[in-house]
Design brief:
heterodimer, A: 353 residues, mainly alpha, globular, B: 16% strand
Amino acid sequence: MPNVLMRMATVAATICCAALIILIFFGRDLSQWSFDAGELQNFKIVFLSIILEALPFLLVGVFISALLQSFVSDKLIQKLTPRNPIAGVLFGSLLGIILPLCECGMIPIVRRLIRKGLPAYIGIIYIVAGPIINPVVFGATMAAFRTNRDLAYSRFYLAFLVSVTIGLILYYFMKQNPLKAERHEHTHNHSVAHTHDHTHSHEHHHHEHPPQGKGSLIKKLADTPAHAAEEFFDMGKYLILGSLITALMQTLVTRASFAAVADQELMSHLFMMGFAYALSLCSTSDAFVASSFSNMFPPAALLSFLVFGPMLDLKNTLMMLAVFRKKFVLKFSLLIAILVLAGSILFDHLGFV
Amino acid sequence: MHKSSAALALHYLVRALILAGFAFFIVHLVRSGNLNLYIANRMQVIVKLAALGLYAIAAQQFYAAIRTWLDKNAHDFSCDCNHEMPATWGKSILLYSWFAFPLIIGFILPNGPLGSSLATAKGVQFAPQQLVNPSADLSVSIHSYPLESEQLTITEQSSEDTSPLIQFDDIDIEPKDTVEPLHSAAALDRMFPSDEFTESYAHFGKQLIKQNLIQVTDKQYIEALTTIDLYRNAFLGKTIELSGFVYREEGMERNRFGVSRFAVSCCSADASPFGVMVKFNKAYLLATDEWVTVTGKLGTTSYHGQEIIQLDVSKVVKIAPPDEPYVTPDLDFG
């Protein structure tokens, strides 16, 4: 159990370091970080608005995940999964068209699907591609970039290319299960609980708790909110942490300090990616935010923002750390960053944006 | 490792309370009308639905708490899916207070619309035409429009000007009493040149220019400001009315302030401030973040080396913050 605390401590330390780097970068010292009443109110509104906005998506995610747990057998998942890696990669990238969710909803579903036997690489591509390649985001991006359709289309092409590449790389190079080894730890705990249960409710336990999918429909339905509650408390803590940091950054860091980096090509890309990461916007609204930057940054940098943000941001990194191994999350994040950066620079030089 | 059923019941109870707390918070915001401060109108439905979902889960957890408490042999309500209850009291308290934290902030801190300090952090967009026309060169030295009324003559647009870019330099402002003949289709087309990106703005501009008093509505706030800014020469001298909060930043002159609104497309986290610079001699009478409706004539001014539109305000009315403090991009526009 202390290792959970350790894990939280590592995350907290990472965040503190990141915050310090930001402080140094923007040349502000802590004495200026006093909240006045107006700022406190703004902070409250932004902090809670992210949670409120994410709640419905998180709930849909945990409900679907709970339904999958109760009603879909492992066998069915394994039967439906494409065997061919190319088909699998395409399936993962385009799954968002059928299942348009934002990333807070996706992570619990993907974890469930992987546990049920979906190849990890397909699930992970869905996490990466799903928040962009879906009809809701398409509509929002088109509305926000009414005047720059090239940029809007490029967002989807680049997102597709990046996720297909990631999928293939994962397929060929990922040997280990990326999920945290919770299952083992759990079975251990559970068996202890079992022995304990046995002492006073021997026969009861056994038919009330079938190993997989044999209970009545009503029992399964009644179980769904229980699964949902567990998932909610599992994922919710990371959502709250992500929203908290995002809200602090939004209220305290001024945009004017960005202007200096906008002129250099590489810096402008890196900056917009870092910015997308820190903001943790939902992919349905980030296009509007990006368009408000169109006078400060070149379109290619906005493309980086639009593709990188939904694939990887602070909020979803924290949620991924709850599900995947730390090392995997790190490598995976670097891979996304490099691919998006290279991709949008390439798009820029080919004249797509 | 062993958990007594009383402790388990307590877990379920606390979870039920937290879930119900979130649901109740949403209902509370809807009732008080404050949900508008957090979530854009078109997204509110799903947030309300989320409250229902939260209630459902809370009810189940509450039921589980009672069953676990009363019936020691009740079946295990935790699902068989690799979740665990926190192992120690300390960790439980930590987890549940973490979830209670946003609720406490939500109920205790005062509600109010986003204001100037966030607008400063995000940077107010005073030249919204850059959304449509990012390459627009607004540096003051290149364009400068004298505003004296003596110069109100109508000149033909020079025939060699065939550049597809929007150029307004050759169009001058018409005196008010000759407005009628000027609004012929041809004259309007000349005043509102457009390409495929600005077509809808040109169309909107042609409607706006016919009004004696141009009221910037909440529904098309961004679109109206963008149109006026984009075709500023056509609108110079027109009377415009709009509402917003008083925005000030360091280095602003004493008789100036911004009338600003946040544009929010999903939730307040994506808010970006738009505004119009206002010149008003009694500006010192207005507090920052106060809500006002201003009426004034359109002119231009210089702001951080850019030429932006400015209202020379003759009338200011203090108003209560509107029920819907933010504006949304109008998706049906154009």
